[in-house]
Amino acid sequence: MQQEHLSSPFKRRALLIINPVSGKRMVLRYIPQIIRIFMDAGYLVTTVVTSRRGDAVDYAHDLGGGFDLICCTGGDGTLNETITGLARGDIHVPIGYIPCGSTNDFAVSRALSTDILTAARQAASGKQKQYDIGLFGDQYFSYVAAFGAFSWLSYTTDQNLKNVLGHTAYILDGIKDLSRIKPLHVKMTVDGTVYEDDYLFGAVCNSTSIAGTLELPASLVNTCDGLFEVLLIKVPKTLLDLDLIVRGLLTQDYSSPFIVLTQGRVILAENPPDLVWALDGESSTPCEKVRITPVPSFLTLQS
Question: What is the C-alpha to C-alpha distance for residues 70 and 65, in angstroms, rounded to an integer?
Fold first, then answer.
């Protein structure tokens, strides 16, 4: 679209992708104010509303190239879809994010405000920073690909429970379903180094916060270095082993022999064929073998 056809004061175009059911549906009452914020920043705003899973992918892919900024409101899943749409179309447009989900791991890790109007002002501000995203086979993720305990909580926890209790819902749901967690025999090859064992949990991530329950030290995580952090938690054999794992995770002491924390550029995962990974909290297609790599600096976040 030719910028010179735009009438003053609107020199730029913004596409606002709205997920109306995310979190507590709070965003709906702020839509006029959000649009006003972008207009005051010089954007002519076009709004689209999602009604089913995958809509944000299509909107970003089909429309994204005609705008100067794509801003989405919703949870990490909505952000994942927006990034996926742009990546599939090789569309390099800055993204704004107004987090309205229940846990908002991505926002927490990137120090984004979870106040809706503050986040809107940040997205309209024009300050930009680049981040790596991930390629999981032929699927994209913005900050984490995980399996096992806690990885599935984001998309199996009841939405009404998440709306009422937020982060606490994940913890409660995790405790309630601990009995269903079983050891998963997984082989992870990280830049040529093999880690093979029975694991309770594993994650390939670019974030300090994982699944709303685990945290990595900020001093370790560089979100634009072309590297992923790989966290693997082995199956404990005794209650003492379990205590060591829990203490290590709570204190961010990863010296326990039951916890593996490493980094790599190319990760090959081989696992049971029916294992479902979670990509940014959304279930992936089951796969027996998958290659996981970063897409360096693809995401330009405007905040």
Answer: 9
Domain 140-293 = CATH 3.40.50.300: no
Strands (E), the chain: 12-18, 43-49, 69-74, 95-99, 128-136, 139-141, 144-148, 184-190, 193-205, 209-210, 214-215, 228-234, 259-264, 267-270, 278-279, 282-283, 289-302
- Largest Cα span, the chain: 70
Pick from 174, 170, 165, 200: nearest CA to 185:
200
Closest CA to 110 of 216, 208, 22, 214: 208
- CB count within 10 Å of CB 231 equals 21
Instruction: Give residue limits of the domains in the chain.
Output: 3-126, 140-293
Q: Under CATH, to which class is 3-126 assigned?
A: alpha beta
pTM, two decimals, is 0.84
pLDDT tens for each residue of 207-264 = 887 766 678 888 889 999 999 999 999 988 887 887 888 788 778 888 889 999 999 9
